[in-house]
Design brief:
single chain, 55 residues, alpha+beta, two-stranded antiparallel sheet, 1 helix, 2 strands
């Protein structure tokens, strides 16, 4: 019998609106919010699941 490593990947996504001077600053603001725990993705943000064999 052969042993396989099967990977389960779940994708979560949420759109955050923020005011900023430019795109780079908007990303920084949202990244900081995410890192500080102000944005926490959960089951309601679920998009898809992929199951594949690791090679």
């Amino acid at each position: 019998m052969t042993r396989y490593r099967v990977v389960i990947t779940e994708k979560l996504s949420r759109t955050i609106e923020t005011d900023a001077e430019n795109e780079a600053d908007a990303v920084k603001v949202v990244r900081r919010m995410y890192r500080n725990g102000n944005i926490v993705l959960d089951a309601s943000d679920y998009i898809e699941t992929k199951i594949s064999v690791e090679r």
